[in-house]
Structure formats: C-alpha cells, structure tokens
Request: fold
Amino acid sequence: MFKSSSVVSSLVALMVGCFMVAGSWADDVAVPDYQLPDLSSLVNQFGEPFKGRDGDTLVMLVAGMKVKDMVRETLAEVDPGCLQDGRVIYLANISGMPKLVSKFIAVPRLRDLDYPVWLDYSGDVASGLPFHKGQVTLLSLGDSRKVIEVSFADSQAYLKEQLLVRCEASTENLTD
Reply:
C-alpha cells in the first residue's frame, strides 16, 4: 500500500510539474527547441496559400479588436514589402468568428490592405501559441520555423521597435 501511494504521489507531482512548465512557457523570453506548427493550412485574405520562407522571420499573432487596431496603425508606418516577402507574418486567428461574419464582412475588409494577413480559420496554428489578452504575440523564428524568442507587444512604440528590426519604417507620424 505504501508503495502505491508513493507512486501516486510521484505521478501527481510529475503531472503538476508538467502543467506548470506547459502553462508558463509563454512568459519566458526564450523558447528553446520549440518549432512553430505547420503553416500550410493558412491562406491570406485573397485565398492564396501560405508559401512562407525559411530563416529570420517575425510572426505577429493578433487576436482581438483593440490589438488589431494597434497593429494596423503601426503597419501604416512600415514598408509593406516586409510582410509581402515574409520577413514579417501577420497571423490572425479568426477561428472564433462566425463564418458568415468572416466571409461577408471581415475578410472582404482585409482585401483593402497593402499586405497579406494570414488567416487561421480552424485555430489549429494559433491555438498552440502563447498569447496575452490585449497584446500582440511576437515570435522570432530561425531556420525550420524554430522559435528563438517570444515577446508581447502592448504598445504601438514597442511593436514598431520590433518591426524596425525587419522592416524599413517611417518614424515621422508615430508617437510613443
């Protein structure tokens, strides 16, 4: 009996430890050996499949209206070429949006943008990624979609700073 209760205690401790590690990894700055899920299920607002690129890339996971507005305001200051060539990936999780709203309202509005927005209709890609409510998740990728760093942008100034690493931007109209 004693052995089985110590085994159960050990299993519970192991499960709690695993839960704590899995639940807190998003707060860490570096995420060693984490690979971004396959992005081939993504399409942009024009229905074009994701082609992607290997190497230094920044993925912006955008969820929520307030965050979306901050991203759009910041991207108005950035050369859209960095989004078009894949140095920056704008990933929008629209899996929770009603299909009629996404089909007839949201996606048609996205077609007015000068850059691709990669849509996760199923949530399969975005669901495994870290996020904080009201913030943009920024995933710095290396070769083979390996996540090198995770950060969270809660201000336009910080988001712009991160985008400047990969994009040429005009700083004239953006306030801190």
